[in-house]
Amino acid sequence: MPLVTLKFQRCLTRIKQELKRQGITYTMLAERMDLSVVTVTRMLNHDDISLKRLLLLAEICGLDGLELVNSATITHGSHYFFSDRQDAAFADNPHLYAYFVALFFEQQSPQQIAETHGLSELSTYRYLRELENLELITLAPGNQVKFVVRAPLGFRANSRVLRQSIAAAISDTSARLLNDKREPLDFMLLKPMHLPEQAARKLQDELRQVIDKYAEASELLYADAPSCQVAVAMHATDAEPSPSIIPLDSC
After folding, report:
1. What CDD domains would the database entry show (predicted)?
2. Which of 21, 109, 114, 119 could make a disulfide contact with 123, Cβ separation 3.0–4.6 Å?
3. Distance separating alpha carbons of residues 105 and 220, to the nearest angstrom
4. What are the boundaries of each domain within the chain?
């Protein structure tokens, strides 16, 4: 079952609990939404509800859409990682990784990818064969794909692809934020601190929770909204201030 469907199910369960708690019947809900009782009943008991109606239901119940999605986050028992060989191949060939992202994470078919990017049959075949050689898929006649890996899938901490992505993101973020022409959403906060290790780790955990919360909403609620890059970093600094204080005797 798709991850989005599972999230919608959990959101609907939470909404139905809140409707029951507030004593809002399906008849009352139908009147407020200007729908038939049959439509409301089907909407609350099927997975194909639209996002617009899901958010309207949340609003009627007095629930915050962002909090609702966050509470519906799916917890996975295991996380799977690319092998060193796969990571190296993607680092050396970013186009191959972009193809795999479209195929696996975005769930596009080879035909859809070819149409979107103007790929020939030969290019499509070469991409798929390379992914098969990396033991990520098995390829059947007619470019039918079966995945050998499964979600959640990501890179390990020492990944070359991650290091390249982080370096590019930091460079782009620095260039954007230090530019004289700032966009309305551009934001930067630099705060030197003195923290013991325990407090620093607690701060990191809290920042991760906030970022994860909004990242979840980004995928489900705001997919069509303008994109933005969020970069959060923390690192140890030298004990001496920079620039240091120097003698002026010989000046």
Report:
1. HTH_XRE (cd00093)
2. 119
3. 14
4. 3-71, 80-153
